[in-house]
Amino acid sequence: MTQAPTPTADTVRRLVRSLLGESAEGDVRPVAAGAEPATWWVGARHVLRLAPDRGAAVRQRRELRLRELLRPYVSVVVPTSVAHGEWAPGLTYTLDAKVPGGSGEDHDVSALGEADLAALLAGLREVPVRQAETLGVPRAAPRPLEALRQAAERAARRLDEADEFDAARPERLTRAASAQLGVQPGAAVLVHHGLAGEHLVVGADGRVRGVLGWTEAVLGDPAEDIAALALCVGAPAAVRAATLAGYGARPCLRGLWLARCDALVHLAEALDDRSAGPESEPPPLPLPALRTRLRRAWEPILLERVTELREDGTDDAPS
């Protein structure tokens, strides 16, 4: 198998000059540190994304088509490709116009920003599933909440021993509740599947200006996007946005518990990796970020205290 080339600053400069001309504005620099950076700032107005392998190239081609399908349904900005093609045989690139604003990791989302997130979730529900499938967007089966619950209980005990979490907290996902929070038939929608802070573009006023990173989008469980928002903006804001988008108590609570279980498991795994010694793989996020996500996911919400889930699939919640 041919070894994929390693993108360098010189590679990026040559490509940018071929696209924008010799007078291309500004320098090029990686968006994030890494041995083989795949995303580069190009001056102040563009972002260049390079697919590092053929699998990523397939996803990037699909993303370009999906972004065009999305635009009529979502009110936030979806990136626009100024140019796209191949930067090496079989490996694609897209030069996107930069979406003005800052990272959701650095800016709090305001009440109007929650309304923006609600409009996003509502828009994703409206995207025709059949059209998305035609573009190659894959289906993803809902995660079994009972298996995740058991893993989270083990993680909670581990974190309790490390004085990171109180395993005796009154909020608890029971076996019966995990069964009730199963996905209802016919609930698959277009799911971003990565609504983390680095993919939310937030203005200084707290409005959500754009959403990046559509390569991992799937047709699946909308609670996954609610869960991602709970980790990013906090459980109350995520549930308020989902409720404004028209979701009932069941998907909101399912998203809440997906986020809580994920936060417990990921922090426990990171602590175990750190205790394994310097040879272990570093966690995907630093410990402070994982602790922040745990705190956000476990913020209390009124909905879980006043909602009774019925066996027939309807939700009894205050209006």
Brief overview:
With 319 residues, the protein is α+β, with helices and mostly antiparallel strands.
Task: Give helix % range.
Answer: 40-55%
The number of distinct helices, counting runs of at least 4 residues, comes to 11
Structural shape? globular
Unreliable stretches, pLDDT < 50, 5 or more residues? none
Q: Please, what is the average pLDDT?
A: 89
Main structural class: alpha+beta
Radius of gyration: 21 Å
The major β-sheet equals:
5 strands, antiparallel
Strand order of the largest sheet: 1-2-3-5-4
Report strand %.
5-15%
**What is the terminal-to-terminal distance?**
59 Å
How many β strands by DSSP?
12
Topology pattern, helix = H, strand = E: HEEEHEEEHHHHEEEEHHHHHEE
Could you explain how this protein is built, in words?
This protein has 319 residues and is of the alpha+beta class. It is 43% helix and 14% strand. The protein is built from eleven helices and twelve strands. The strands form four sheets. A five-stranded antiparallel sheet has the order 1-2-3-5-4, with helices on both faces. Helix 3 (111-126) packs across helix 8 (235-244) and helix 7 crosses helix 9 (249-275). The termini are far apart. The model has no long low-confidence stretch (mean pLDDT 89).
List keywords for this structure.
43% helix; alpha+beta; globular; 3-stranded antiparallel β-sheet; 12 strands; 5-stranded antiparallel β-sheet; single chain
